[in-house]
Amino acid sequence: MLAGLSAVSVTTFASPAAARPALREVQEIDGEMLWIAMAIEISDKCDRIGARTVKGWMQLNDLRNLARDMGYSNKDVLSYVRSDAEKARIRKLGENYMKSQGLDPNNPADLCRLGDAEMARNSRIGVLLRAK
């Protein structure tokens, strides 16, 4: 009987952790990761636009803390951030966003146009960018 109770206790305590959605499904985190990734891509590919690096690092730190507050471990966060599959998925989302704006994600000039527009709008992407 005690062995059965132990199994129930372990199952009960393990359930909340198992019930957490994957970080990719947590919009407050995944959506912000998209905007950060897009700002990095723009600053890497457009010679006249730079990244607001400190602001970006602060946002990443805030996202990590939010994930930890939601019960995710540092290992969970690192697995999400370093995952090649997640990077490819975020890249595809960014490409789709650019296409929705009538821009070609493979054209550096279009990345510059997007960066200019996002900075002018002071958007989630734009606040992470600066003119060089």
Automatic annotation (TrEMBL):
Superkingdom: Bacteria
Protein name: DUF5333 domain-containing protein
